[in-house]
Amino acid sequence: MAEWSGPSGFNKAAGMARVQHPQLDDVLEYLQAFYHDFEVKKYNHPLTLGPWPSDDKNGETVSFVGLKEGPLNSYTRIQTRPSPDGLFSHQMNLDNLLDCAINILPNDAFALIFLIHYDLYEDEDDDFCCGRAYGGSRVAVVSSARYNPLLYLQAGIDPHHMWPASHCAQYVASQCDLPNKIKKALTRPDDLSDSPLHQAVAAFKNTLPISSSQPGVLQGLWLFCLARTASHELGHCFGMDHCVYYACTMQGTASVAEDLRQPPYLCPVCAKKLARAAEEASGKGFDEEKYRKNVMTKMMATCEKWKHVGVWAGYKAWLENIRLW
């Protein structure tokens, strides 16, 4: 099943084919910063995927795989199917994966998230799904498959206008397809050059270009996309619904392209909700201002490691300037 985790039909000798999957430790570091004051750690027991006895007498069709959980020595049957669009050889059913997560959620854990490299689908009408959470059950599953930089052209993603460059005025106007007269009327004379978002866009533009000749840049980009979605899905486990107030990482999305135009940070409304949860978890003596500063400090340290990648450089610049704004 190893070949299931890579896109089909691409030249393996191409430059971008050398990009490594995001590493668990890097995603873990991001979540530890995002969910500061909560203990975020790896699940201690091995999970193993293996074949499930086929219902086909001829053994020609593999419709299920088994997910084995170490200590319980039990298997969860995971339904699979060929990818409808052919970008991956197979997909796994995320509802089955979430059922497994519910079964193995430790008694001393608030939530559990699966990070997998395989493509997902939720029901037969879905083309694919990048992630899902059962907030009430406090479990989530996120896939890195569709965030593979190899697939950006197929997904209609402009890598030069991902967040924060998705807020570029000319790009926004072009996406809205406004007449020139209206575009001119919407132009603001205010000097916003020192705003956090303006500084984030400037930092994004000053990094190495996104190209197949820079596998380190593409790896960092892939990591950013996966980590942002992981923080989003875990947010549902904390009781946060899709945000309808401001630009926010908890916003809903209808496509990968839209997903990657959204910010990695929480809006003031959702940030307040998470701070409230942190207060409940920490008990007495909670200082919300100190908590927010610690979150930003840890996240800036994470961004610093990937500062050669536009999205990370932009996030770091936003964090640095939001404190002064």
TrEMBL record:
Molecular function via GO: metal ion binding; metallopeptidase activity
Q: Which residues form a coiled coil?
A: none
InterPro entries named among the record's database cross-references: MetalloPept_cat_dom_sf (IPR024079), Pept_M54_archaemetzincn (IPR012962)
One GO-annotated biological process of the protein: proteolysis
Reading the lineage from the top rank, the first entry is: Eukaryota
| Stored SUPFAM superfamilies | Metalloproteases ('zincins'), catalytic domain
| Requisite cofactors | Zn(2+)
Q: Which UniProt keywords apply?
A: Hydrolase, Metal-binding, Metalloprotease, Protease, Zinc
Q: Name one Pfam family in it.
A: Peptidase_M54
Protein name in the entry: Archaemetzincin-2
Look up and give the organism this protein is from: Gnomoniopsis smithogilvyi
